[in-house]
Amino acid sequence: MAGSVESTAAELAAIADNVAQYRSRVGGLAEPWVGSDRDDLVAAIREAERQLRNAERTLIRALRAAS
Questions:
Q1: Is the pTM higher than 0.85?
Q2: What is the domain range of residue 35?
Q3: Which of 13, 32, 50, 52 could anchor a disulfide with 23, C-beta 3.0 to 4.6 Å?
Q4: How far apart are CA 41 and CA 17, in angstroms?
Q5: Which element (helix H / strand E) includes 62?
């Protein structure tokens, strides 16, 4: 069973890293629209970024629990 915990931890770490990269990419998408008349788009992108940050934190918590 210990091997499967290690495998799960490795997978969680990889996914958390990918989510962090996506969060950064998504956050960058809002920058060109800041100050424009597309506040709706900026707000939606920033909300997506926040949700990805929460997902990353939750994955890290799960990783700590698996370790």
A1: yes
A2: 2-66
A3: 52
A4: 26
A5: helix 39-66
> pLDDT tens, 13-50?
999 999 999 999 999 999 999 999 999 999 999 999 99
Amino acid (1-letter code) at residue 8: T
Beta strands in 1-67 (DSSP E): none
Q: Which amino acid is at 49?
A: E
Q: Name residue, tokens 């998504």.
A: 26
At position 43, the amino acid (one-letter code) is A
Tokens of 2: 């210990």
Q: Which residues of 36-47 are buried (b: 16+ CB within 10 A; e: fewer)?
A: eeeeeebeebee
Q: How many domains does the chain have?
A: 1
Q: Which two tokens stand for residue 56?
A: 């990353």
